[in-house]
Amino acid sequence: MQLADLIDTEAGTLSRASFASEEIFRRELERVFARGWNFVGHTSQLPKNGDFFLSRCGTETVIVSRDEKGAINVLLNSCRHRGMPACRYDSGNGNGFICSYHGWSYGLDGALTGVPKFKERYQGKLEREKWGLVRARVTEFYGSIWASFDETAPSFEDYLGPDMQFYLRALLQGPDGEDDGYEVIGGIVKWQVACNWKFGAENFAGDHYHGYSHISVERLSVGLSGKTSRHNFAGVKVKQQPTFLADPARGHTIRASVFAALAPYDDQEAASAEVNDYYRQCHEKRQQRLGDKSRLLIRGGVIFPNTHFNSAGRTTIGLWLPLSAGRTEVWRWLFVPRNAPAAVKDTLREYYLRYAGPAGMVEQDDMENWTAAQRGAESLVSRRYPFNYQLAMGLERRSRPDEWLGKDVTITEDVTEHNQRAFYAHWARLVADES
Amino acid sequence: MQLADLIDTEAGTLSRASFASEEIFRRELERVFARGWNFVGHTSQLPKNGDFFLSRCGTETVIVSRDEKGAINVLLNSCRHRGMPACRYDSGNGNGFICSYHGWSYGLDGALTGVPKFKERYQGKLEREKWGLVRARVTEFYGSIWASFDETAPSFEDYLGPDMQFYLRALLQGPDGEDDGYEVIGGIVKWQVACNWKFGAENFAGDHYHGYSHISVERLSVGLSGKTSRHNFAGVKVKQQPTFLADPARGHTIRASVFAALAPYDDQEAASAEVNDYYRQCHEKRQQRLGDKSRLLIRGGVIFPNTHFNSAGRTTIGLWLPLSAGRTEVWRWLFVPRNAPAAVKDTLREYYLRYAGPAGMVEQDDMENWTAAQRGAESLVSRRYPFNYQLAMGLERRSRPDEWLGKDVTITEDVTEHNQRAFYAHWARLVADES
Amino acid sequence: MQLADLIDTEAGTLSRASFASEEIFRRELERVFARGWNFVGHTSQLPKNGDFFLSRCGTETVIVSRDEKGAINVLLNSCRHRGMPACRYDSGNGNGFICSYHGWSYGLDGALTGVPKFKERYQGKLEREKWGLVRARVTEFYGSIWASFDETAPSFEDYLGPDMQFYLRALLQGPDGEDDGYEVIGGIVKWQVACNWKFGAENFAGDHYHGYSHISVERLSVGLSGKTSRHNFAGVKVKQQPTFLADPARGHTIRASVFAALAPYDDQEAASAEVNDYYRQCHEKRQQRLGDKSRLLIRGGVIFPNTHFNSAGRTTIGLWLPLSAGRTEVWRWLFVPRNAPAAVKDTLREYYLRYAGPAGMVEQDDMENWTAAQRGAESLVSRRYPFNYQLAMGLERRSRPDEWLGKDVTITEDVTEHNQRAFYAHWARLVADES
Amino acid sequence: MSQDRDSALDRLLLEAEVERFLSAEAELLDERRFDDWLALLHDDLHYWMPIARNVRFNQPELEYTREGAEANWFDEGKDTLKKRVLQIQGGDHWAEEPRSRTTHLVANVRVESVEGNDITVKSRFIVCGFRLEHDVDLFIGKRVDVLRREQGALKVLRRSIYLDQSVLLSRNLTTFF
Amino acid sequence: MSQDRDSALDRLLLEAEVERFLSAEAELLDERRFDDWLALLHDDLHYWMPIARNVRFNQPELEYTREGAEANWFDEGKDTLKKRVLQIQGGDHWAEEPRSRTTHLVANVRVESVEGNDITVKSRFIVCGFRLEHDVDLFIGKRVDVLRREQGALKVLRRSIYLDQSVLLSRNLTTFF
Amino acid sequence: MSQDRDSALDRLLLEAEVERFLSAEAELLDERRFDDWLALLHDDLHYWMPIARNVRFNQPELEYTREGAEANWFDEGKDTLKKRVLQIQGGDHWAEEPRSRTTHLVANVRVESVEGNDITVKSRFIVCGFRLEHDVDLFIGKRVDVLRREQGALKVLRRSIYLDQSVLLSRNLTTFF
Ligand code: FES
Ligand code: FES
Ligand code: FES
Ligand SMILES: [Fe+3]
Ligand SMILES: [Fe+3]
Ligand SMILES: [Fe+3]
């Protein structure tokens, strides 16, 4: 299997080895994960100076901390002496970290502040400034925190590109259109799935074709109100056009709805007056704030490679963390509108829990199918037959309903595998790249 | 370790790396398993059109089905869209298979019959005839079903060769000598053993030297009647000569008994009149049907590489399925004479269950020894010392008691490692083959 | 990662790949373990002819036996026919071993004494003298038993070198200075740790810097008497100088104390009169026996590569057995002075049990830290940053307090990573060695 | 004296009733008699399984995510459990089709307190699920139930389930605890 | 009333007797007192462990192989069990020499019904077997026993064992359930 | 007759008391109420967990290392256990900081004999420990306790723990059994 042959963009096919080969997996780690930017958390998790929590950056465990100056740091959680994790608590508050092996101590910014026997036995020669915890490059973006360990990578803004900046900002706007409008619910949801991380990535990139996976839940009104079907969007009566946008040069993908026209709120949350009122007010504020652009509703997507999010009434951001070609750990942050009344926050929280994750009535069927599909990517004969990504091939276009929808993106309206094709084309370039 | 040096046919030794090296294991999968023919089941498992069951073909999970036309199909159980198993039931009856991921549907013959959004979003362009479930080559042989995914492999008959066709046909003849005389008992026995698959293969190929493994059970009359020792054969008073036959060009091996002369039945099943009568009648019918050739009694063997069987009063066919160099999954089909009275079928079933498999008083000791021997093949220093296959070396001959015993086979009478030598010589040729 | 770059002796750093790379692990097995000498047990485990026990030699399981002539044999525990362990009992007494697979039998010295069907089917041709259990080279050293499977390795004495012979002999001297003064307590302690074996090796080589690991136990008087702190040494009032000695050419390392002068016993075990009396008498006898050299007290060390020991009032010898880059099995022999009264033996036994091993209040924290540090050696980004071994670098010297402390060793007084540097320098030479 | 004895026996009878109830409940789940199982749940049931966090020894209050306030594995009422049952019963909930084979084991059943009609019971559980050819899930943890007696019958009013895994090592939680 | 109470206590006594019986039996197995164990088995014992299959939700009757008709892990009487015991006791049954160390754990013991001398009991089991240096087998499942009282003593008349694995993930079933 | 019944009920009450005691003890451990747990241990407690060896079928007496004479996993008194508790409580015993989350499950509780104030009890245990993100330890085995009644209260006088692993497959034994 030549790396250059993993993907056939003409045919719209991808080799199953992409999901099963440990050699390709190792290249992914080096060329895709070690070079990208990763979501590591949200400023609402660090209200006070001294606050910290553990997160992941691809394959790495990192400490995300707010130091005495209020600055946010992302630190490789591995003591420079013998590699021991400097921090072993999921979260907390303090003025630094002491390694439990030989007692080297580090500040909230990773500086090596204490070394036993520094004078007597290192004769003061140990270059402490060189032996602090490894610091990642960090960028805050409308409340979200991003990190990269690649000094040669572009800035986070350039990594996102102009269009994705627009979409990600929109994602992080509250229902009322206010920037940085969300806060994290306590408790990050973490679990493992026995499949390649890309099954998750391609699903969030824009797989509206897998409705059959969820036929069981369609019967059961698991929606926000518990009385409507599983999805719910800022409801207006006018036609909404599912739209799939991809940045082919950077591999980012977005699922969105574009409404035909501005329209009044249609009381979709009537089941609860309080919730309904909140969303009506938000709907109106948002129209005022964003005007015509309020017709764009982000439904989800993937910041290349493995930061995935869902929106459209429920906002979650997560990570597909590669453990091996056939095993993935998932982390999920649940968000609620910062200024919403308790009733809305509770309603959203309950909605997430019955919808997403290992106990989620919707995602359970995704996980089951991905795990089973992984076997089909692994076995000797079956892996000779590439996966098919031909859905709506040739229907993508650069022209778009509204020019403000983006400059560098390709777009397909209605169900398609366009976003997966863009994601894998970029992925395959990086994996095959010999530089 | 050069691949060419794995075996030393002069010395009668085989490198332990053959059982422990993951690199050799990968070559086995490509050169031995992907190129051979495998037993996948029996026509008695598919009485009606629409019947299907899951089986294995080396490393692959396959669907074996009888379609509307009554034809038997062996299909790779992996959806062509994203690899999901199309069927997840061990067996059943229906008119096809629907993939639970995106809902592609397939006919009993593997044809891609349904694709959601075929017209709207594939614009009818998806070449459905090219995207059906992968079909294996299939051959029925006296009720047994065989499959191969190698288009370049010879026909099953040529793969067997003339002599093995004769032996396999004989194996499948009922006690009364009637062709296709058996049916499968419901419930395939499946388990895993932490050893290389070849420990099983060489044992069934003809290891009559390991009696010491079974000294405990020899005390306990676990035979057919529960009153006699563990083996039982169509009993006649005349001398029976254990005979080991191998097809060196193809790697197949057979254990058999050849009786000195035709002789009357000797009531070995006297413990049960009904069983005894049945076997007496069968004995006589068989002599009439087969004449002099009825002196040949197949006791077991291996169709290269991993289809193994036991006979001689109890007929079972099984598969050694390679999971890794050090782990094997075993599948076992139990057979009873199609036309035997219930008492005979029950007696045989109970005999199998106390004899074979994880709960079998005989095979338990085989599994224990193979698992322990596997460690000896793996550890760094011990694997420098080859295994010894010198038993009765040089005693094999092409001349034979009866010319009808075979043209292309080599033969050794009485206990020997002749069959293992032939099995491994062929195996080593394929593994070292660079084509 | 070039093998030559694993270590930077100038900088005092070591690549984390040394602990995580499976490729380096395979080279270790071939170049470090298969070529060294290993402790396999103690003569006190084999009081009678016919006694045997199972042990390990690096990656191998071996039988250690005392044969009819009273000679000690170390045998690869793998039948030469198909690799089955010839012995499956942890210990026992008998006149040989019968393989449970095909019944080949071996003498206590490994000779192939019995082969079923030897005359009839091997026609007496099997060269039995060539097919006995593989015999290791064996050396007894003051009661300890050592083995090697490398015919090209130097003698055990040369492998030790003159200085290490002196230290090891001293280790094996009873508290009263008598040679071969110890016996093994029944029950070898065996467990597994999810870290590379070298975390254990470097710790025993001389890590007096990790006191922070054990701050919890310092509060709790787990010492010999249960009333004093965790360490206890033949107590005298004069200053004792912790001293670290390494044989750079051979990789052996020693932790010791050198007392400023001969001095009377100071009743450190006053908690128990009987114990205290015993140690006082030993102290005096030892001074008489060893004179000035009694000022040297061995505290522990490592015979390269993986035989580790602790002394200083409690004598244990153990093995770090490599299972994979990230997993290690530990075996520990506990010793008591052969001639000590029961009260002393019991006190020592209870001291070991609360101190060492998985239930040991001290070593539990070591195991926890090593396991956590292993992750830091494995993850993609963190493993780019080498481990730091700069403690007291440049303070080692060849001159020494007493010339009898050794000719070929380098020495550092007081806490240092000098011994780890010597251990890894030798290890890296062997791993990079292409011969 | 004999009064002590009587109350001791009363206690025994109550404990036995509770154990029978929990064993029978486990059986209904293993036999997939989900409607009968739902009938054992009080209409006001609260069913809660928190997520475990690794915290400093002096902050035990942070160890489990908070009910009704934070993310939890389960934090719901009977209505949602009913939907879960309906989903499995449809035969089209792929995560449970073909069905898992489960074994629910309850031990250390201890009546903690009795207040009016409410009995607080602590127990330990092991739930083992097998599905398809090779998949095994083993869930081990602790449970605190409040059982309410109404018209003589016991119903589960509150169930708190402590699973102890921090990162869930299984892909799904499709069984009931 | 006090009659109710008496019958309630009778039930309790019966349940306790059954639990003691099953615990004592488990102990005999773990202590390898196999002859004493055989003495607890009725001469007409039927001992059955089916093989589990993955089937469509609406075909539960196909989920376990049929006793007396299909392949099963065990489907035998006391005579065969006696042979299994003799095999282990010989010291030459290599799959059990050296012996495994087992722990038999029984829970959720529930008296399902009493008919004449026959008591039907449902339970859950965990059987853990260790052997040699590193081998571990964990068997988890459900059991249905029929215990018959003869001359005051209980004996196992029928034992149905549901293991729930489809492909057995262990090489051997050398222990008793 | 009714005397038989009375003694049968007495036995039941004793068994229930013992089960409650062991369940309550398990709960204290899982809730890390270690001081309360120590209070359940008799001052003369002997706490013993031998190491298992693989021996010939006819040498069962060699299978477990000997108490007070050979190497054992545990072979100690209350004083050492107190130290272990103090070590964990300090928050600086890294092998237990952050703390493990444990589930102690006791089953097959059987009163073997009663002699004066001493009750000999056999049981089976499963102890499951989770710590940090992914670490799981599962300990399964058998226990023999001698409980002594003093001033009405039960205390653990002797505890023998049979773990059945020969090579311990875990790095640490930081929990209590
Ligand atoms: S590993 Fe952190 S101080 Fe040594
Ligand atoms: S994987 Fe089968 S339809 Fe998509
Ligand atoms: S493997 Fe030992 S005799 Fe065959
Ligand atoms: Fe989905
Ligand atoms: Fe055999
Ligand atoms: Fe230490």
Task: Walk me through what this model shows.
- The complex is a heterohexamer, with 3 copies of chain A (435 residues) and 3 copies of chain D (177 residues).
- With 435 residues, chain A is an alpha+beta fold.
- Chain A is built from 9 helices and 22 strands.
- In chain A, the strands form 5 sheets. In chain A, strands 13, 14, 15, 16, 17, 18, 19, 20 and 22 form a 9-stranded antiparallel sheet that branches. A 4-stranded antiparallel sheet of chain A has the order 6-5-4-7, with no helix packed on it.
- In chain A, strand 17 and strand 18 form a beta hairpin.
- The longest helix of chain A is centred in the middle third of the chain and has 18 residues.
- Chain D has 177 residues and is an alpha+beta fold.
- Chain D has 3 helices and 6 strands; from the N terminus they run ααββαββββ.
- Chain D has a 6-stranded mixed sheet with strand order 2-1-6-5-4-3.
- Chain D is globular.
- The model of chain D has no long low-confidence stretch (mean pLDDT 97).
- Chains in contact: A-B, A-C, A-D, A-F, B-C, B-D, B-E, C-E, C-F, D-E, D-F, E-F.
- The interface between A and C is medium-sized, with 35 and 32 residues.
- The complex binds FE2/S2 (inorganic) cluster (3 copies) and fe (iii) ion (3 copies).
- One FE2/S2 (inorganic) cluster binds next to loops of chain B.
Bound small-molecule species: FE2/S2 (inorganic) cluster, fe (iii) ion
Secondary-structure-derived class of chain D: alpha+beta
Shape of chain A: globular
Basic shape of chain D:
globular
User: How many H/I helices of chain A?
Assistant: 9
In whole angstroms, the N-to-C terminal distance of chain A is: 19 Å
Largest interface: A-D, 42 and 40 residues
The residue fraction in helices of chain A comes out at: 25-40%
Tally of separate helices of chain D: 3
Sheet with the most strands, sense and barrel status of chain A: 9 strands, antiparallel
Distance between the termini of chain D: 41 Å
- What integer is the average pLDDT of chain A? 95
Task: Count all strands of chain A and give the number.
Answer: 22
Over all CA atoms, what is the radius of gyration of chain D? 18 Å
Low-confidence stretches of chain D: none
Strand residues, percent of chain A: 25-35%
* Spatial extent as radius of gyration of chain A: 23 Å
Unreliable segments of chain A (pLDDT under 50, ≥5 consecutive)? none
The SSE string of chain D, one letter per element, is HHEEHEEEE
Largest sheet of chain D: 6 strands, mixed
